[in-house]
Write a structure and sequence with these properties.
Blueprint (H helix, E strand, L loop, with lengths): L2 E2 L6 E6 L3 E9 L4 E10 L5 E2 L2 E2 L2 H14 L6 E6 L5 E8 L3 H11 L11 E11 L3 E10 H13 L3 E7 H11 L10 E7 L4 E7 L2 E8 L3 H12 L3 H9 L15 H30 L8 E5 L8 H9 L2 E4 L8 E3 L11 H7 L9
């Protein structure tokens, strides 16, 4: 979903997450993109709930401080939303023109959206024609309060919102669409972004989004489990989590590592929901739209930094799993050497790229 409000520049990519708020300023280079500035700060406690900004003033204060302290003068922002209440589906509809569909879209998508249609922003993209005088259409619906709360925080911070995208779309833009190493455009893959409070899983086939959903398990889930079980502060739980290796759970004999035992049920919940997502996609593909099965899972997001996560998911899901950061792509360079591979910058980078013309492959 891309709600466009203006066409001025310069822009920042602004990722407002439950754990961190990230700002990226980017420019084009002859070979790709250069990250000029990438800054982040903790999201204020109790300022967000299920993706909705519940305390816009607190979020705005953090954004203003980031811009001021790092001398970022841009006044336009590209932002994103993500929540279990956001619907992205590819469906079959009777063939019609884009103009006719736009006039009737709210009627057409009523059966696919559990939310109140009048309380949702709705967008669509006609993908291609299908047999029996039908067509494949990707529909996107996001609750208005989810979108409007983030716009309100930006406005309080003195920023004009240029567009509102979906987090998985932004991640796809920076991690997959910009990449020339793997030939993703001809593959069917699951794009899995492990954030603080949730994990976004999307299935993309031949460059087209087929489905996306949010799973209620993220990096903070594991930290909170360790904190509660061992009765230690969250910062200590974060440090402890970083010292674990999830691949130790893959042996024939169960591990005697108590912290891993604490995390195991939450990992299994994530696995169940990932399998459910992939099975749902395949069932829909078999019934309605002919698609190749998922062969690769691409990890991004801060939660994917956990040691052994890729190995664990690859073994359990029997898929090829790759962990890819923005700066693993040679088309990206950074003015700072402190960003590592940029695993946690996929969303903000993808948003910053929205107003930069794509490269010709």
């Amino acid at each position: 979903m891309q709600l466009n409000f203006s066409k001025k520049s310069p822009h920042i990519g602004l990722d407002i997450g439950h754990s961190r708020i990230k700002v990226i300023l980017m420019e084009r280079t002859p070979l790709g993109w250069k990250i000029l500035n990438a800054v982040t700060a903790a999201t204020p406690t109790d300022s967000m709930s299920e993706g909705v900004v519940t305390n816009p003033a607190a979020i705005a204060d953090v954004i203003k401080a980031l811009l001021r302290d790092h001398k970022i003068t841009a006044t336009l922002a590209d932002i994103s939303v993500s929540s279990s209440t956001v619907v992205v589906r590819t469906v079959l509809m009777p063939k019609m023109s884009e103009e006719v569909l736009r006039k009737s879209i709210r009627f057409e998508v009523g059966r696919y959206i559990p939310n109140n249609i009048d309380d949702s922003y709705i967008e669509f993209e006609i993908i291609k024609d299908a047999p029996d005088n039908q067509m494949e259409v990707m529909i996107v619906a996001a609750p208005r309060d989810l979108v409007n709360s983030r716009i309100a925080a930006c406005e309080l911070a003195g920023l004009e919102v240029d567009s509102v995208d979906l987090e998985p779309f932004a991640t796809y833009r920076s991690v997959i669409e910009s990449d020339t190493l793997y030939g993703w455009s001809e593959k069917t893959l699951a794009l899995v972004d492990i954030g603080a409070r949730s994990t976004k899983v999307s299935v993309v086939s031949n460059g087209k989004f087929m489905m996306t959903r949010a799973i209620g398990v993220g990096g903070s889930t594991f930290s909170e489990a360790l904190s509660a079980f061992f009765k230690i502060p969250m910062p200590d739980a974060e440090i402890g989590k970083g010292q674990l290796d999830l691949s130790n759970l893959l042996g024939e004999q169960t591990t005697d590592n108590p912290p891993l035992r604490v995390l195991q049920p939450h990992l299994e919940e994530m696995l169940r929901e990932l399998r459910r997502s992939l099975n749902y996609f395949q069932a829909q593909a078999n019934e309605n739209i002919s698609q190749a099965p998922v062969t690769h899972l691409v990890l991004s997001g801060g939660g994917s930094m956990m040691t052994g996560m890729a190995e664990y998911l690859a073994k359990k899901l029997d898929l090829k799993v790759l962990t890819i950061g923005v700066l693993d792509n040679p088309r990206f360079v950074s003015a700072s050497s402190e960003l590592g591979s940029g695993l946690d910058l996929a969303v903000a980078s993808g948003l910053a790229m929205r107003t930069i013309a794509p490269l010709v492959a």
